[in-house]
Protein 1
Amino acid sequence: MMAVLFAIFYFLIIRPQQKKQKELKAMLDSLNYGDLVLTSGGLQGKIAGLTDTVVTLEIADKVRVKVSRNFIVSVLQKAAKE
């Protein structure tokens, strides 16, 4: 009985969360200069700089802010490839 409950719990809660975690990590690893991104605080900006932990966003002409990579929630538009 406990094994059945654990299996249901695993497939309904744990597994989808792990999948979502992997997708988020893949998105963060694929960030590039020029991508238009959205932060968890609602800021939209183009990536002007990247390090392992910090992303520099250009949110207006000559206005740049540094945010932690972990605060990027989505890529709104990928940079045009040259």
Note: The helical segments are 2-29.
Protein 2
Amino acid sequence: MINGHATQIARARMAWSALALLIIAGSAHAGTLVGGGATLPSVGYVGGNAASANLQFYGTTGNYAIAAGSLFGVYATQTGNPGVSYCLTGDGAGKDVLAGGTIRDNTEVNTYGVQTNCAKNTNGVVNGFGAPAVSRTDLLQPSFAAADSPLTATDVSNYQTGHGSTSDWPTQFPVIAGAVGIGFNLTDSTGAQVTASEVNFSSVQVCQIFSGTVTEWSDSRLTSAFTLPTGHEIPATEINVQYQSDGSGTSFSFSNYLSNNCGSAELSNVFETSQNFTGTGGVASNFFTTLPANWTGSGGDANVAKAIANTASSVGYVETANALALALTTLQLADVAGKSPTANFGTPLVIGSTDVVYNEVINPTNASNGTAQVEAITSPPSTQCIALVPPADYAIAGSRGGIVPSTSYPIVAVSYFLGNAQGNLSTDLASTANLLEIPYSGGRVTVKVTTVGPGTGLAFLNITNAGTNFTATSPGACLH
């Protein structure tokens, strides 16, 4: 049994306030599957409510219901399936809740558990999935978690410590891809808003902005990015940078792009691939000891999108579906390398048998150029239930052996469902397996999902040729 769960269950039965706890209407009963984690794919999983202006609580009706056309909404309509709750903790906390127990994150110590409220603790971390809110006080572990930053060796160690056994393993399979947009809020010399159709950043320009090499919008190195009407100019204003302050798969994916594409930008140093933008080993840690005063962090994709929209002369990275769901007129999404995050993204990305490795994790130490490295798990399980798309495979559009075609928007995230190979309640086993397999169901289910596909900023994965170890039923077969 996982240490500390009796205390967590008792505490969780007290009054709770939920941060972004999303519950399918009519599903708050025993058997509801309880999960949480990544914000990047959340609009696809639960609908536009994930990017709501009110991120304090989601109920079961009205503006806080999960959309019928979302992945979880469609899942709930299938005969025999229960409801699903989803707590937007962010990647890092989501993996930690799946692990359970007390975990040290840099200088902070937090205790995580499925029974803990879906709310920020005194450290500002959402350290639970709020199971009591959906009458699941019987759960000792979450039904699933979602993450865009794949498992690391530390994550696996935390999981086995939290579960009290080196024989217990998480499962991991890629389920969806997302376009990480470059959002901006800028007016020209006439006071007119600069629109998405007028901005096309090169990869070098993206690298220069987020390394702090370019600090003003009027810098001549950015001139080629803008196509403005005659008589309109870019003003000499400071670039205000917005970034994700929590452990974020969006940061991981954006930095994966930066570390693999910025070599030609002739920067003073390299970007680190990391789920943390700041701190030791963070994305920008090689460029700044302390970030400039006009660089501002916000937790979650939706909050970063709102920070860009509310801050004049700003730019930031944000998952496209969240930005679109908010429909903020002052938030525009730039083209990158001539490709749009909406018009040039959404067709399923093809995963071949050589695009997936098994029982490998992200090495905590990047290569000297900041790119992520993968390593084999020490004493791995005998199964092939920890599947990883190496980050390099989606870092450069059009690269040989990569999964992102040259016709695609180039800044891409791959998001995963995580599960528990052991310890699933027998009454939940079939429904949990169905949930983890639903992204690969094709015409049976995914064709009915309206929150993923062309124009949404999200794309399913085509695993037809992924090999015998990764089929539509592999995730469910890994659960016991």
Note: The chain has a mean pLDDT of 90.
